[in-house]
Amino acid sequence: MGPQQDDPLGPLPFILALQPVLQSLESDLKIGFLDDVTLGGDIETMTRDVQVMAGLGPRLGLHLNLNKCEIYSPDATLD
After folding, report:
1. Are 39 and 28 in contact (CB under 8 A)?
2. Sequence-separated (6 or more) residues with CB below 8 Å from residue 40
3. The pTM is what?
4. What are the φ/ψ torsions at residue 29 (nearest 5 degrees)?
5. 17 part of a folded domain
6. Per-residue pLDDT of the chain (79 residues; tens, 9 = 90+)
7. Main-chain dihedrals φ then ψ at residue 28, nearest 5 degrees
8. Residue-level pLDDT at 38
9. 2 occurs within a structural domain
10. Number of domains in the chain
11. Could you tell me the residue range of the domain that residue 43 belongs to?
């Protein structure tokens, strides 16, 4: 189900479904490109936003792949 592999318009339905979600997130930095999302800001806000993204499965059929998620902190502290 869904678009065929290598279909140039394949990402369009995903992007259209994800756009309102990205606009509703509270992180300072929100970037969506194809099926990747980058968030930036304080850890508490990003945590809430990731929980919002993780909760989309039942509503939109989107599932967060935790194996591909990363946290980067230039000072390596997450307090």
Report:
1. no
2. 27, 28, 29, 46
3. 0.75
4. -115, 125
5. yes
6. 666 777 888 778 878 888 888 999 999 999 988 778 999 999 899 999 999 988 887 777 778 888 998 888 787 665 5
7. -65, -40
8. 93
9. no
10. 1
11. 11-68
